[in-house]
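Q: Could you fold this chain for me?
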Amino acid sequence: MSTRIPARFRRLRDDESGFSLVYTAIGFMTFMAASTLAIDVGMFMTARSQAQNSADAGALAGAVALVRNDWDNRGATGPAVQSAISTATKNVVIGTAPSVLASDVTFPNDPAGQPNRVMVKVYRTSFRNTAIPTLIGPLFGIPTVDIAATAMAEASPANAMTCVKPFMIPDKWTENMDDKGKVTGSWTPGSQFDLLDSKGAPLTNPDVYYGANDPRYTGYTVANDVGTNLTLRAGTGDEINPSFYYSWKMPGDTGGDFYRENIANCNTSLMTWGDLITQEPGAMSGPTIQGVDALIAKDPGAYWDTSCKCVAGSQFGTNSPRVFPIPLYDPYYYALGKVNGRVADFRIANFLGFFVSSTSGNAIFGYVTNIVGVVDKDAGPAPVAAFPKAIRLVQ
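A: Sure. Below is the predicted structure, expressed as structure tokens.
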């Protein structure tokens, strides 16, 4: 006996009009899940990039602080570590500062064994309670994601400088004998570089200078000379004296106004190690002091802190305009040129960092300090004993 299904039930059984809504709902949920997952992935990629920026900035800041503040202080409270932490944490990762502890800032040696690198690690991780929350991850048991990054910067020898001032002093040498043949045996700010005696005959034991690319380098170094009190006075005649400065002609123009402006401001010309430079014609003692006084007036509160051998009180932080590079000329090259009757030209032997504290009369008082230089790829390798350091990322 067959059972006849009423027509109205047959219509309900065969009706498919609601299926499109089911498919639409499933598709919409799938689309939302995929979109949310894409947002999560994009956020993680952004977080990774921002974490790397944070680590890069921290490493560079740490290297700069080593050079400009205190090369020997690598302690947790020292300027290198604190500057690295402060700079890294200011670069937020997805709106939140990453975790950077003092132990996350280390100082590896470079491949040559020199302690001139700063490595910084930054974290947004569950271990540091800073993990990044996910949007779709909780559905799969992944409520947060850990992000970390590492960077390393290096303070390597520089072969070039900008903002160089248009006066120069000789590099240091080994003092053996004065021009009267008297043995002196020690270099002092009052020494004079001597190759010949007062009659023009070669000394039996002349003063000796070795350049910055020689392992016997006799000149200024960060290790030996940072913090040294230095007084500079306008040079007289052609005497090679550590305290006598000579003006030199910078690229662009000549004359007292141009010369003075280059002291009070920055001449962006790139000067490189080994460049030959010529003396500026005319007496430049007045413009020199005027330019230096204008420089001091730009940052009047800056002073030399003998405890850290660094500049303190500057309204420019670590970039006080009262810190500037001075070219050091090769005393042997200049003296040999005089002996051979060559036109008085000078060869840049190194660059010295100098903080100017005050002036009096024609004298400039200040301290030897660290300085940041640059690397000119067209100028050849930087000398091993270059006084300025160039800051760069190496990882």
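A (continued): Helices lie at 7-14, 19-68, 79-90, 222-225, 256-264, 285-298, 331-339.
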